[in-house]
Amino acid sequence: MTDTVDRTGSPADADALRIATIGTGVITRGFARAVTISGRARIVLAHSRDAQRAAQFAAEIGADAGESDLAAILTDDGVDAVYVASPNGVHAEQVRAALTAGKHVLCEKPLVLHAAEAEELFALADATGVLLVEAMRSAYDPGMQLIRDLLPQLGRVRRAGLRYTQRSSRYDRVLAGERVAVFDLAVGGGALNDLGVYTVHPLVDLFGEPQQVVGAPVLVGPDAEGAGLIVATYDGFVADLSYSKITASDLPSEIQGEKGTMTFDHIAMPRRIVVTPVGGEPVEHLIDGPLDDPQRGTDGNLSYEIDAFADAVAAGVEPAGSRERSLAAARVIDAARGA
User: Gene3D superfamilies, from UniProt (predicted)?
Assistant: First the structure.
């Protein structure tokens, strides 16, 4: 527990969404910086099960206070919403508790480990009159919106290859024989949940839910998933989704249509999109997102989801398509895992 802190704020931030964070990892630090860039929210409490760590982390990210008692956070009238960025395996439990307490929830991807859990939690959000949104940052990015806008230029889509490859520095620990949570399937880790999910969401966003899904994981130790491939088939169209935490690649993602081909540089934050008409010259589109800050990496990218979440809470309506995308993505991941 922490001492009572005045969280009424100044008149300047009176309309800011008051958020409590759960999780003290790298993503929460990036989220906190993005909150500052956005200006639409403010972090009032930072949670860690260890009281000293909670206070320390709160100071590091600029939160009003730290709190080790999750129940105290969920009953605090000074908290409007909870950002869940804890290990994947405890998302469902913590999201369920927050929704039951009447708090809006922005939960890091993957929302939960199975589609049935996602359906249950969305139903609970409806029953308690609050919003549940999966924090899929690319969905709200201007680069992804441009991809949606340009897609009709390709004509009927026949092939797509969506990729996210980023070698993890923690892979060396796996090679040394350690059990590392971010790779560990037993606790909700693994390359699919960490990176592959960034390919699954655009797939269902752009093309809808596939008719058939086949997954092929690459295991690098007991219950340790380092990479993988998903083949998703539609009527007259096939897509492959590749992801890896154990190799490195700069290959772009690609969508091939009968009238042209589109490539884009980064599935989670598209900034260079090239459309090449059949028999024509390539046309380059560069994105200079108004919230991007090169000194802060993807924090500007994270800010778009904060804006969308704040707008949704203010309006009392989920971001358009967010629930459908989350449920469809969860079903694709279930199918890829053979669940």
Answer: Dihydrodipicolinate Reductase, domain 2 (3.30.360.10), NAD(P)-binding Rossmann-like Domain (3.40.50.720)
